[in-house]
Design brief:
The chain is mostly helical. It has 11 helices and 6 strands. Strand 5 and strand 6 form a beta hairpin. The longest helix has 21 residues.
């Protein structure tokens, strides 16, 4: 694509998808996924990196941390940014579908953006659906795929409690439940990257985290101590804070307060 060609709405949605999956410090033309995406979009890595930084100038979370993107965001940049942030449940799945289409991912394939690595496509079992529910289920699945990648990358692909780095063992755990808090379903700050056992314990209120992000153990789990596996997986980390990369947005403390009040078995 020739230099100076205007960005389209769909292209900006693709970039916003990537924007949510990478920390601010990785909006660089040397970043593997930036280079891969630029090739697929027939643009230069520099132009993709610059547009990501233009979008960062619109991000209040970046500004609140004393950082800023590049000036020069267009009227369309501002319009699509506002739409994406205010209609994330609708537009995040749409952006995920557009992103997958650029990389040619099939329905039977999972596509993940991994910070520092690039785009990874793997085979998954196909899940047949009836014709009436197919579109709805695809939208939900795309939203879940988006949320998973955003949260896992925010924690650098590691369990926030144990540091386990195996993505197959990790879950993007919702702090405020998916079913009850629809407006926060795809909010990065409503997510914690946890191993499957810690995700299950968090979901059932067996554990929580305090105002300093330190692990709390509930009374139902504590009744089973000193069972060896529980000691290894939970007591070992009790009182220790979540591992949150410095360049990532931390989970919302107000959301964690709600979790302690509504779900945690104190």
């Amino acid at each position: 694509m020739a230099k100076g060609i205007r960005w389209t709405r769909d292209e900006l949605l693709v970039l916003l998808n990537l924007y949510e999956k990478l920390p601010f410090g990785q909006f660089d033309e040397a970043q593997p996924v930036v280079r891969e995406l630029a090739t697929r979009m027939s643009r230069t890595p520099g132009s993709v990196a610059m547009k990501l930084c233009n979008l960062a100038s619109l991000d209040p979370a970046i500004l609140a941390r004393g950082r800023k993107g590049l000036p020069g965001a267009s009227a369309l940049d501002r319009q699509v940014w506002t739409e994406f942030q205010s209609q994330k449940e609708k537009l995040a799945p749409e952006s995920e579908q557009l992103f997958r289409a650029i990389f040619g991912a099939k329905e039977s394939e999972d596509l993940e953006v991994i910070r520092g690595v690039g785009v990874q496509i793997t085979k998954i079992p196909e899940m047949p659906t009836g014709p009436t529910e197919a579109k709805k289920e695809t939208t939900v699945r795309r939203g879940q795929q988006f949320f998973r990648q955003v949260v896992l990358n925010a924690f650098d692909g590691r369990c926030g409690v144990t540091g386990i780095p195996i993505r197959e063992l990790l879950v993007a755990s919702h702090i405020l439940p998916w079913a009850k808090y629809r407006e926060h379903r795809l909010d990065q700050q409503n997510g914690i990257c946890l191993s499957r056992i810690h995700d299950a314990a968090f979901d059932k209120g067996l554990i929580s985290f305090d105002e300093n992000y330190c692990l709390l153990i509930g009374k139902r789990l504590r009744r089973h101590l000193p069972q060896e596996a529980l000691v290894a997986n939970f007591v070992t980390y009790e009182g220790k804070p979540l591992h949150i990369p410095n360049d990532s947005l931390a989970p919302n403390l107000q959301f964690l307060s709600v979790h302690r009040k509504e779900q945690f078995d104190k």
